[in-house]
Amino acid sequence: MPLGDRPPEPLSPAEVRALLAACSVESLTGMRNRALLVVLWRAGLRCAEVLALRPCDVDFAAGTIRVRFGKGRKARTVGIDDDALTVVRAWLGARDAAGIASEFLFCDTKRAYAGRPMSPRYVRAEVARIARRAGIAHRVHPHGMRHTHAVELRQEGWDIPLISRQLGHSSIATTAVYVDHLFPAEVVGRARSRSWAALGGKTSCRGYRWETACRVTPRAWAMSWSE
Question: What pLDDT does residue 133 have?
């Protein structure tokens, strides 16, 4: 299945915790992976945007990240919380202590390649490996962290225009469709509130003849899947 045809896959809070816990804080690579996942998740950046960041793009005092090369080469400034910045600061401190110098915020940690930039392909593979260690059954990828960020902002009551600016979308309409697809709260809420009482008579399934109700022709069954 092509990537564009796959449904969005935001993570649950428990899955995010498991993912971060699967990154060892005892190794340099684990600290880098943990910081990388945190920035993807808490700032809602695209993978390419994260990999283009430099240490000077992070303002620890202001709680901001400057995205200089966003989609369409558009720059923007996003917010990020203090707890996330603490994780990033720990990674930079460990990197400096290991004697790794790099112009990029996130870089390779292997001795032969230390300091070199990371590729999106490598990050996708690394995130998938971490997810397997975390015991997450479904597919986990960097853009899924961005999906998770968008869902959480909406659950926290952020307005669509603010979410649009944080995500770097070109229009509010794009964000509205994006968020509704990820978190169809109104649709789910209305569907769950429906009552069988509106049908009149019995509201219980007891004694209902499902084999009769489900008796359909092969043609009718095929047509139902095409709509």
Answer: 96
| Number of domains comprising the chain | 1
Domain that holds residue 97: 11-142
Q: In DSSP terms, which residues pair with 64 in a beta bridge?
A: 59, 79
Report the CATH number that the domain containing residue 108 is assigned in CATH: 1.10.443.10
Is 76 a residue of the active site? Answer: no
Residue 169 lies in a domain: no
Query: Is-catalytic flag, 178?
Result: yes
Catalytic choice (42, 46, 147, 154) = 46
HEC string of 5-35 equals: HCCCCCCCHHHHHHHHHCCCCCCHHHHHHHH
Told to judge if 74 belongs to the known catalytic residues of this protein, a careful annotator would answer no
What is the predicted pLDDT for the residue at 213? 47
Query: Cα–Cα distance between 175 and 180 in angstroms, integer?
Result: 8
Which positions of the chain have pLDDT values less than 50? 1-4, 208, 210-214, 220-227
CA nearest 20: which of 138, 146, 130?
130
Contact predicate 100/114, CB 8 Å: yes
Instruction: Answer yes or no: 169 catalytic.
Output: yes
Of 48, 17, 13, 182, the residue nearest 124 (C-alpha) = 48
Query: What is this structure's pTM?
Result: 0.80
Q: Is residue 68 part of a domain?
A: yes
Tell me: the pLDDT tens digits for 83-125?
999 999 999 999 999 999 999 999 999 989 999 999 999 999 9
Residue 170 lies in a domain: no
Our answer to whether residue 219 is catalytic in this structure is: no
